Amino acid sequence: MLKKLYPGCKWISSMAIHPKGDNLLVGTYEKRLIWFDLDLSTKPYQQLRIHNAAIRSVAFHLRYPLFASAGDDRSVIVSHGMVYNDLLQNPLIVPLRRLKNHEIVNDFSVFDTVFHPTQPWIFSSGADNTVRLYT
């Protein structure tokens, strides 16, 4: 084991590693999106409370400075997450768009989200038996 991270939450639902490998995104059932800068600290760099219900999935795009989170509040939130090569400059995190098209079924909504490998498109799957593509 190289490093032990302390998110400060009880229930982690999902994790995604930045394509450069030095940042980690964690989604929790406690409605928090936690960003770790692995070069900076073992504690969270930033905690975002942008969902109104449990977060089920998080994802980074492989080419573009984008990340997304999906939750039980019917929404997929796409955010800008710029990581700089300069170690003295902190990552820039800006929520961009809330995509709210899935329905709630038995208190569940969006289960998973994934980016297209080359295009800035995002797919989401939900409890309403649909897979949606956002371009």
What does this structure look like?
The chain starts with 11 loop residues before the first strand and ends with a strand. It has a four-stranded antiparallel β-sheet with strand order 1-2-3-4, with no helix packed on it. Strands 5-6-7-8 form a four-stranded antiparallel β-sheet, with no helix packed on it. Strands 9-10-11 form a three-stranded antiparallel β-sheet, with no helix packed on it. The protein is mostly beta strands and 135 residues long. The protein has no helices and eleven strands. The chain has a single domain (12-134), classed as Methylamine Dehydrogenase, Chain H. It has strands at residues 12-17, 23-28, 33-37, 46-48, 55-60, 66-71, 76-82, 92-99, 110-115, 122-126, 131-134.
Key attributes of the depicted protein:
single chain, 135 residues, mainly beta, Methylamine Dehydrogenase, Chain H, 4-stranded antiparallel beta sheet, 11 strands, 0% helix
Number of strands: 11
CATH hierarchy, class: Mainly Beta
Question: How much of the sequence is in beta strands?
Answer: over 45%
Query: Alpha-carbon distance between the termini?
Result: 40 Å
Model regions low in confidence, pLDDT < 50 over at least 5 residues: none
GO biological process, one term: maturation of LSU-rRNA from tricistronic rRNA transcript (SSU-rRNA, 5.8S rRNA, LSU-rRNA)
Pfam family, one: WD40
Protein name: Ribosome biogenesis protein BOP1 homolog
GO molecular function: ribonucleoprotein complex binding
